Amino acid sequence: MNGAIVSNTGPLVALAVINQLDLLRLLFDDVMVPEAVHHELLAGGMNQAGLAAYQQARWMNVIKPAERLDPLLASVLDSGEASVIQLARERGIACVLIDERKGRQIAREVYQLQVIGSARVLVEAKRHGHLASVETALAAMRQHGYWLHDKIIAAVLREAGERHNEA
Asked: In CATH, what number is assigned to the domain containing residue 73?
């Protein structure tokens, strides 16, 4: 995929709990984590799931947005999602990594950012030869408590060539 990406908390946790955070380094030239997301991860959401893997990934760039959060963003999104969009806008980065529906929708429709999620990372990793099975990775995410809708999983598996259309 190349280029830079700004990541929210959810996808980092999802990839960390299955020991696949390095996929981001393999797919992108620069992975930026807003300071608010960094603090969310360190605070230990989801029972500190993936925290050790995140702390070992020293190749990520933790960055504080230069400007105060846009009041509109801060009023409709949590601080992590809002800071992802803010940092992407400040740095001129076109792509953000967000799994939550509301954050994805605002990033895409209001700010015209390209939005990908953790499932897309897995598909791209498989396409580039960095991952053998998207289905195994998704199952592991679910096993660790990371929720993905059944329809999303089915669509992702079809796209990865791991499942055919079901009637």
From this structure: 3.40.50.1010
SS3 for 166? coil
Helix (H, G, I), strand (E, B) or coil at 161: coil
Cα Rg of the chain (Å, integer): 15
Cβ-Cβ contacts under 8 Å for 137 (sequence gap 6 or more): 18, 20, 122, 131
Query: What is the DSSP code (8-state) at residue 114?
Result: E
How far apart CA 133 and CA 127 sit, in angstroms, is: 10
Task: Answer whether 116's CB lies under 8 Å from 94's CB.
Answer: no
What total of structural domains would you count in the chain? 1
49 belongs to a structural domain: yes
| Look-up of token digits 């230069």 | 66
pTM for the whole structure: 0.90
Q: What is the pLDDT of residues 74-119, one digit of tens each?
A: 899 999 999 999 999 999 999 999 999 999 999 999 999 999 999 9
Structure tokens at 34: 């807003």
**Which structural domain, as residue segments, surrounds residue 42?**
4-118
**The two structure tokens encoding residue 56:** 């070992």
Task: Please name which of 96, 66, 72 lies closest in space to residue 84, comparing C-alpha atoms.
Answer: 96
Which residues make beta-bridge pairs with 96? 6, 115
Alpha-carbon gap, residue 57 to 99, rounded angstroms: 20
| 104 in a structural domain | yes
